[in-house]
Each structure stands twice: as structure tokens, then as C-alpha cells.
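Sample 3 of the quickstart, ligand adenosine monophosphate:
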Amino acid sequence: GNIVGICVDRSPEMLVAILAVLKSGAAYLPLDPEFPEARLAYMMEDSGPAAVLTTESLRSRMPCGVRLLLLDSDELKVALSKTPDSNPQVKLRAGDAAYVIYTSGSTGRPKGTVISHHALAAFLNGIGEHIAFGAGHVHLAVTTIGFDISILELFMPLCHGARVVLASRDDARDAAALARLVRSSGANSMQATPSHWLMLLASDRACLKGLRVLSGGEALPRETAVALCEAADEVFNVYGPTEATVWASVHRLSGNDLSSEAPAVVTIGRPFANYRMYVLDHCLEPRPVGAAGDLYIAGAALAQGYLRRPSLTAERFVADPFAVPGDRMYRTGDLARWRADGTLEFLGRADQQIKLRGFRIELGEIEAALKALPEVSQAAVIVNDGPGGKELVAYLVAANGTSCEPENLRAVLSERLPDYMLPSAFVTLEVLPL
Ligand code: AMP
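Result:
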């Protein structure tokens, strides 16, 4: 029933720490060491971890009053050497939490999604029917543990006797370094967002030879799919939100998806075992094939909800009218339609949540952070097509008698928001008198 934070750099110890927390019966809370201290402090204050596993070099980033276990301290090493190396005898219940992952929050506060062991097992079993892992597989893991898609990368190989190669943060970000690692590690499986795949394709297309490509987290444009299918062995498009445990639907790409008559965005496929998906209208009636509607997900892999946020949970996790009483479905906020072939087409969002280079961002959270500054009276943030691709632009109205210097705003925001949520440009607007 406890939550245990994990704030360590990408290393084998990170993976050991995750497995250790799960074995202890607690839920792990990933804390990305690159996040601003204020955000890390907020996540710890909100979730109240019993302890945080970290290292000496990251200690200074931890807030006061949190119990720290320093993995590289002599004290902990001595303590560990005195404990048995057998599995702890913990009686887990299926509903016990396995992890809590924070995502951007539209009201300005990130929210923690709580996933149970039952949901985690439902996901791992369900996806395994479509994307097999076995002794011959070498999966190159590139995603921070702060995002739930890391769970496929770390747990699927280990559950099935395959090998995980952990890419360092720097290697994962740098296309040339990542391409070298793909080659030198002998990887034959890797999962990344379409933006990440594009980066790799642009740098060294040939390194994808022999690779099983899993693409997810963002819409997969047909053009990217064509390039991936030409370069790699096998390509899957996977779709799902954190609230439904990693992925909910899968599609293995074939020639039909690549022809010039195929839709510009690759289908997100069909829900796999333990998941159900519905396309509904505002009265929760199913939409006919070809008609757009709100996409809902139901089944064994749904989250328990948001940590200590009952009203937000009730808003998004609603009664499933197509199942037995008590079953719930999650309103994803995505728009979709069924195709005649029984697969689902992703049509975008119905709200202000966006994906920018694979990162899930609520524009409302950036706006709230801006409006909290004394020099800002109003703020709106949008995504624009910039010279280097999509970028965030903030439009502001300065509070009376103040001025908004972009550099100052950026510096103050960077103390609260991760880098990927910082606007590239700030535009101050004048309010004209009526
Ligand atoms: P996250 O919780 O970070 O996994 O983000 C979930 C959201 O990412 C979904 O609700 C979709 O808006 C988007 N998403 C994830 N996978 C795909 C995909 N394969 N195609 C289109 N959108 C996707």
C-alpha cells in the first residue's frame, strides 16, 4: 500500500529498484531526475512516498522531509548485505497499486495515475499475444521511466527471457549515438514515438535493418510508416493512454497501409485481449462505422483513477453501459472512427491536450503556470508550425504597469515545468480599450 519514489539515472540499478519496489508490495513512483526540483517536490508532496530510492549525486534535488535511501551509500550496502536474498513473502492483492505515473494536468497541477498489479498483468498478457518476446529478442529501451511506455520496454523482455539493453539518456536523444547503439547492441526490437523514429531515419536509415519497430504515443503519418517499413523488418502501430496501462490497441503494418490511397494517418488497429474500445456520441450511443465520435476504453487494464483526485477520476472514468454493472470505461479525449475493416482511425483530440515530439502536454498547465506570475494577467498557449517543426507559442497580456520579458518568463517557467513544456516564443499582446 506504500508508494516508493525512484529518482536515479538510467542504469541497471534503476531496473533493480523498480523490481524491488514491486516485490516489496509497494507501488513505484518514477521521478525523472531531469525534472525541475519544484515539480519533483510537488509529485512527492502529492503522493506522499514512504521513501525515495536515489543516489548521492541526486540527493540535493530532493525536498526536505522525505525519507531517502541512497543506493550508492555504504550504509545501505551494509544494510542490504545483511538481508536475505530470497523473495519477500508479501501477500499481494490484484487491486494493489503497482505504480503511479504523473502526467500533465489541465488545471495546472500534474496528476498521478494509479495502476494496479491486475491492470499491469492484463496489459502484459494482452500485448504479448501480438508482440512476442522470447530468448532471441534484444530490446533496446530508450524511454524515461517517467512515461509508462517504458513498461513494455523493461517488463516484456524480462517476463519472457529476452534481453533489455538500456540506452542512456544522452544516447537516446542523439540520433547518431542511438544509431550506433542499435548496431552495437545487436538490438532486434525497439519502441519509440514517430518523432523519435523520424530522427533515427534521418540520421541512419540502414541501422533499422532487422529491427522490429514499435511506434506509438502519437499519430503515425503514412509517409513515416512507408520509410519505416522500407527500412525495418516489421512495424507495429500501438495506441493507448497512461490511464489504460500503456497500450490498448495494436496494428501490424502491411502493404495496404502504405498505398497512396490509404489514409494519411495509419490505423491504430484493434483493441487486444483485456481491452475494449468504443466510439460513442454525447449520449454514449455507439457511432456507426465511418462516423467520428469520442473514443472510450474499457476492460481489465484500466487505471484505478487519479491519486487523491476523486472528482477528476469520476469525470473521466465513467460507468460502462455495455458491460456488467460496476465496470467502468475511460473517456480518452481522443476522437476516432471505426473503419469498415474493423480497425480504428485516430482523428485527433477533443480537448487541449497535445503531443509534442511524443510528450503529453496539457496546454492549460502551461497557461496556469504563466497566469500564476505577477507580471501576467492573461495567457493562452498554442502549437504552431515553426522552422524546426511544431513549437509552443505563448500569447500574453501583461499585468497593469509591468512588462513581460521573454527571457525572464522562460527562466521562471523552467523552475516549474520540464523543458519540453517551455514555449519557444512569447508574444505580448496589448488589450485595446473598447
Ligand atoms: P500518454 O498517456 O502519454 O501515453 O498519451 C496518450 C495519448 O497519446 C492518447 O490519448 C493519444 O492522444 C496519443 N496517442 C498515443 N498513441 C497514439 C497513436 N498510435 N496514434 C495516435 N495517437 C496516439
